[in-house]
Design goal:
mainly alpha
């Protein structure tokens, strides 16, 4: 499969690459090889291959969603230096 100079220039522009002429020739050869490999993949018969979600067979292990008691607002705010009603007060980080 041949890759023309216009295609190489297009790919180089997408990748924001500035290539010398000898680099363009090498890239054209490399791109032709990659495209041929994809063409080989397209020719593989996968009609009897079942689809997979994850090739290593791992799945997420999740705990059940159970309600549990949490800290009261008073207990949470008891360990802070400064509060304003039910909120933490912290030093300013960003300038005005």
């Amino acid at each position: 499969m041949g890759v023309g100079p216009e295609f190489v220039d297009y790919v180089a522009k997408l990748a924001k690459l500035h290539l010398a002429d000898d680099e363009k020739d090498a890239l054209a050869s490399d791109l032709a090889g990659v495209l041929e490999f994809f063409a080989q993949l397209d020719r593989v018969d996968i009609t009897d291959v079942p689809p997979t979600k994850h090739v290593v067979g791992l799945s997420n292990v999740e705990r059940s969603d159970a309600k549990s008691p949490s800290l009261s607002t008073d207990k949470v705010l008891a360990n802070t230096a400064d509060t304003d009603e039910d909120h933490f007060v912290v030093p300013k980080v960003l300038p005005d």
